[in-house]
């Protein structure tokens, strides 16, 4: 699993980054970059992560993160980074 | 490195503006499946299609999930069946057996369509071509996942008017045999001029004889994305308008290029082309008509519509061509009526007629598409409409097509419900003046001259 982009969208609350990064630590996924912004009262966070050494497959990583999100009322998506690189870089 | 606003922009396109990859279509050559018996041909066809496209649906779904962009349709296109069955088929029923075999293959694979129940007769029909064409009504009535197309003309050969005359009758017959489902069979049948060999979109997809053994063609879409971005520049000048459409088309096409490359790698089948068409769906906002409104028309059909569509089509191509290494297929903007809520609204408002749609087809990627007309429309009138579209394609060196549905028992003002991506359509008025005597003439229209362009 190469570079992945994790996005979190929803209402801001305590512990979002803690929850997501705790899970990534368990899955042995390295966080390369985090940025966040608030758009129209919505919390938007993006993590760029490296899953090369992770034992967890992309599909289950994606499902687990979505489950964590659902538990906190957040939408967490996990995507391979190529789609963004293709679209926004010539 | 990628920044958050870029990531959010991409995801907004998918989640709110209906960005998707409309289809991954695997083109498969069936030339090596021709046998001297119908049974042998059917067995070879079934085994080759199910072998090559075995993992298509799973691969498409995997790619969609991993990149977070839906891959809506997974499809197969095959060598025109009139060629594959020429050695074995002696009656129309023989060709229908091949159609049933294709249907069985579609069900096994889980693809939503197989295209290529086709004949390419731009200059003349062989006996097998004619048999296949005559079998189309029964084939369309007895299958659900098979698409048929007939190419009746080209810029190089002129128009085969014998085929045009026959197709008027075939469209009518198909409508009759599928009258219990609002003549739905006609929605799977298209008559083309200058049909491309590598089109991934139905109903006109077939795997031309100029293609290799198997190939991946991808159709991207995204009218909702263009539509949305135009809302942010309601009063911009034409330069800004065109630049904005072009940049958006680039982004949309890049997604298609990524998906095509991945699908090609995972399936071990060479990448063919990206078809950069804006293909609308009945979903609100996913509409080419709404883009035309965004450019500044009250409804498509208003004066200025042809110019607006020409501009849109050209910018989509200019943006898309740079985004992909190979562009082909139909590439441009589709203007189906039933599949586009904005078009349906325009017809209902009285703004859009078949005649105006015909003018629009001179500058867009295909032709008269998904248009419901009264069931009483004569076969000659349908042939006349086909001839008009073919003439536009022939003279302007572009692909044109007619997918028209003379809905059994319906008249102008009625509405027809096709369901799903095919949408619903108001029955439109066809000119009641006759072209019978012209259509009954035999032979073909010669190829046009390529000089003295006026």
How do the strands and helices of this protein lay out in sequence?
The complex is a heterodimer of chains A (90) and B (454).
Chain A: E1 3-10, H1 16-26, E2 30-39, E3 42-50, H2 58-71, E4 75-80, H3 82-88
Antiparallel strand pairs in A: 1-3, 1-4, 2-3
Chain B: H1 4-16, E1 21-28, H2 38-52, H3 56-67, E2 71-78, H4 81-84, H5 92-109, E3 113-120, H6 127-142, E4 146-154, E5 158-160, H7 161-177, E6 189-193, E7 214-220, H8 223-231, H9 238-267, E8 271-276, H10 288-295, H11 305-323, H12 341-348, H13 354-361, E9 368-374, H14 379-396, E10 400-407, E11 415-417, E12 424-426, H15 436-439, E13 444-445
Parallel strand pairs in B: 1-2, 2-3, 3-4, 4-6, 7-8, 9-10
Antiparallel strand pairs in B: 1-7, 4-5, 5-13, 6-10, 11-12
Helix pairs in contact in B: 2-5, 3-9, 5-6, 6-7, 7-14, 8-9, 8-10, 9-11
Entry keywords:
heterodimer, A: 90 residues, alpha+beta, Alpha-Beta Plaits, 4-stranded antiparallel beta sheet, 3 helices, 36% helix, 37% strand, globular, B: 454 residues, alpha/beta, Anaerobic Ribonucleotide-triphosphate Reductase Large Chain, 2 domains, two-stranded antiparallel sheet, 15 helices, 13 strands, 44% helix
* Oligomeric state of the chains in view: heterodimer
Question: Segments of chain B where pLDDT lies below 50 for 5+ residues?
Answer: none
Low-confidence segments of chain A, given as residue ranges, are none
Count up the helices of chain A: 3
Overall number of domains of chain A: 1
Structural class from helices and strands of chain B?
alpha/beta
Rounded to an integer in angstroms, the radius of gyration calculated over CA atoms of chain A is: 13 Å
Tell me the radius of gyration of chain B. 21 Å
Assign a percent range to the helix content of chain B: 40-55%
Q: Which band does the percent of strand residues of chain A land in?
A: 35-45%
First-residue to last-residue Cα separation of chain B: 52 Å
| Biggest pleated-sheet summary of chain A | 4 strands, antiparallel
Task: Provide mean pLDDT of chain A, rounded.
Answer: 92
CATH topology of the largest domain in chain B: Anaerobic Ribonucleotide-triphosphate Reductase Large Chain
- State the helical fraction of chain A: 25-40%
**Largest interface by Cβ-Cβ < 8 Å:** A-B, 27 and 22 residues
- What is the H/E string of chain A? EHEEHEH
């Amino acid at each position: 699993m190469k570079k992945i982009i994790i996005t979190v969208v929803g209402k801001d609350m305590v512990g979002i980054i803690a929850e997501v990064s705790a899970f990534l630590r368990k899955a042995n996924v390295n966080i390369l970059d985090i940025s966040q912004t608030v758009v129209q009262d919505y919390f938007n966070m993006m993590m760029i992560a490296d899953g090369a050494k992770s034992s967890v497959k992309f599909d289950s990583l994606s499902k687990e993160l979505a489950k964590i999100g659902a538990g906190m009322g957040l939408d967490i998506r996990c995507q391979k980074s190529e789609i963004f690189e293709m679209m926004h870089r010539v | 490195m990628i920044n958050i606003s870029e990531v959010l922009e991409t995801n907004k396109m998918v989640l709110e503006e209906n960005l998707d990859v409309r289809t991954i279509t695997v083109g498969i050559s069936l030339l090596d499946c021709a046998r001297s018996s119908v049974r042998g041909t059917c067995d070879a066809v079934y085994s080759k299609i199910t072998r090559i496209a075995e993992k298509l649906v799973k691969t498409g779904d995997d790619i969609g999930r991993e990149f977070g962009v839906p891959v809506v349709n997974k499809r197969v296109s095959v060598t025109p069946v009139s060629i594959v069955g020429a050695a074995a088929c002696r009656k129309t029923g023989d060709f229908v057996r091949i159609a049933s075999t294709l249907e069985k293959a579609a069900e096994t694979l889980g693809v939503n369509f197989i295209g290529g129940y086709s004949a390419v007769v731009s200059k003349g029909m062989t006996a097998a071509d004619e048999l296949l064409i005559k079998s189309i009504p029964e084939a369309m009535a007895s299958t659900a996942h098979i698409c048929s197309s007939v190419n009746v003309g080209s810029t190089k050969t002129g128009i085969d008017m014998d085929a045009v005359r026959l197709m008027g009758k075939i469209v009518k017959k198909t409508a009759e045999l599928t009258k219990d489902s609002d003549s739905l069979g006609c929605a799977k049948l298209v008559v083309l001029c200058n049909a491309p060999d590598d089109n991934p979109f139905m109903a006109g997809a077939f795997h031309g004889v100029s293609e290799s053994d198997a190939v991946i063609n991808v159709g991207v879409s995204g009218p909702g994305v263009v539509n949305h971005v135009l809302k942010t520049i309601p009063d911009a000048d034409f330069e800004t308008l065109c630049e904005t459409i072009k940049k958006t088309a680039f982004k949309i096409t890049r997604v298609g290029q990524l998906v095509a490359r991945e699908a090609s790698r995972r399936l071990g089948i060479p990448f063919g082309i990206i078809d950069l068409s804006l293909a609308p769906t009945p979903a609100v906002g996913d509409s080419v008509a709404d883009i035309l409104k965004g450019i500044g028309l009250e409804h498509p059909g208003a004066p200025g519509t042809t110019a607006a569509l020409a501009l849109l089509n050209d910018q989509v191509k200019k943006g898309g061509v740079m985004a992909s290494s190979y562009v082909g297929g139909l590439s441009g903007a589709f203007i189906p009526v039933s599949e586009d809520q904005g078009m349906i609204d325009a017809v209902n408002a009285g703004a859009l007629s078949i005649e105006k749609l015909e003018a629009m087809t001179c500058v867009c990627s295909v032709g008269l598409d998904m248009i419901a007309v009264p069931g009483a429309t004569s076969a000659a009138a349908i042939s006349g409409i086909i001839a008009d579209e073919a003439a536009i394609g022939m003279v302007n060196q572009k692909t044109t097509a007619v997918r028209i549905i003379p809905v059994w028992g319906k008249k102008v003002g009625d509405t027809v419900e096709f369901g799903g991506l095919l949408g619903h359509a108001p029955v439109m008025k066809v000119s009641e003046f006759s072209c019978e005597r012209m259509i009954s003439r035999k032979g073909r229209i010669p190829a046009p001259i390529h000089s003295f362009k006026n």
